[in-house]
Design goal:
About 55% of the residues lie in helices and about 35% in strands. By secondary structure, the protein is of the alpha+beta class. The longest helix is centred in the C-terminal third of the chain and has 21 residues.
């Protein structure tokens, strides 16, 4: 399988996941203070929203790459 086909499939998968889930959450953990054996940490959960247009563009580009590779063969 060529690298172009792999990239096209990855773009298609990323685009579909972006449209289905719309974003993802991640936790940022920072160390606030350490006093002897006591350690205080702060965990902040943030959301990253993936725009719909980015998912659509990824699907279109992935499909275009697959079609280009199919015509080439």
């Amino acid at each position: 399988m060529s690298s172009i086909k792999i990239a096209a499939i990855a773009l298609l998968a990323a685009g579909v996941l972006a449209l289905v889930y719309g974003g993802f959450n991640y936790t940022n953990s920072t160390q606030e203070a350490t006093i002897g054996p006591l350690e205080l940490t702060v965990k902040d959960t943030r959301t990253f929203n993936v725009p719909v247009w980015a998912g659509v563009i990824a699907i279109v580009l992935g499909g275009g790459l697959l079609l280009k590779e199919a015509r080439k063969s």
